[in-house]
Design goal:
The chain is mainly alpha-helical and 216 residues long. 80% of the residues lie in helices and 0% in strands.
């Protein structure tokens, strides 16, 4: 195992895991904010914002995350602006996440009966107020499972950022495997790290579903 002890490997992997978690949080929070805006545009009755949102969603859903990552990392550099691997990874994952969350949430909003829109309209609420006070609270109960389910994909998607040199869990595991000549053990621990993160998210989803009575 070269000069590395088991604790050295675990300690370095925990550092990589922290960066994976940080990138996942940034991508999910940023993607949630952008995705909410895109979702509002997507359900708009005006054709221009609706078409812009549809094009945005189809663009990011129809191209590989790796390609989006390359375009951000190398495209910005070609424009003469220096960008770190961390920033490129955060931007690419945020855009990718926002497109999927926007479509997930649009489906949840569309599942609310039209009668809810009509009833809230009779209260003299404008469309944004209808969405904020009547539709979204109901859609939230439906959105818990698919949203948390997609967050698991975001966590696993961070592994792609190792291609541009961002030192998250997968990249750290690769460097340790080369240094220790113990790839099976190292990548086994990497897999365990991803499993613990994703399983924790699954448990959180079950808790939220019970709390919001979404399972019923």
């Amino acid at each position: 195992m070269s000069d590395f002890t088991l604790w050295d490997i675990v300690r370095n992997l925990l550092t990589g895991l922290q960066w994976t978690l940080a990138l996942s949080l940034v991508a999910f929070i940023g993607g949630g904010v952008v995705g909410l805006l895109v979702m509002v545009m997507r359900i708009s009755k005006k054709p221009l914002p609706r078409n812009i949102a549809r094009t945005y969603i189809e663009l990011f859903q129809g191209t590989p995350l790796l390609m989006q990552l390359f375009l951000v990392f190398f495209g910005v550099a070609l424009a003469g602006v220096e960008i770190s691997a961390w920033m490129a990874a955060a931007v690419a994952l945020t855009l990718f996440t926002s497109a999927y969350l926007a479509e997930i949430w649009r489906g949840c909003v569309d599942s609310i009966p039209n009668g809810q829109w009509e009833a809230s309209s009779s209260l003299a609420l404008n469309p944004l107020e209808q969405l904020r006070y009547v539709i979204l609270p109901q859609a939230l109960r439906i959105a818990v499972a698919p949203t948390v389910g997609f967050s698991v994909q975001v966590v696993k998607g961070t592994a792609v950022t190792s291609i541009i040199g961002f030192t998250e869990l997968t990249k750290t595991g690769g460097m340790l495997a080369n240094a220790t000549f113990e790839p099976f053990m190292v990548y086994g621990l990497v897999a365990l790290g991803y499993f613990l993160l994703c399983y924790s998210l699954s448990l959180s989803a079950r808790y939220l579903e019970r709390k919001l009575h979404a399972s019923a």
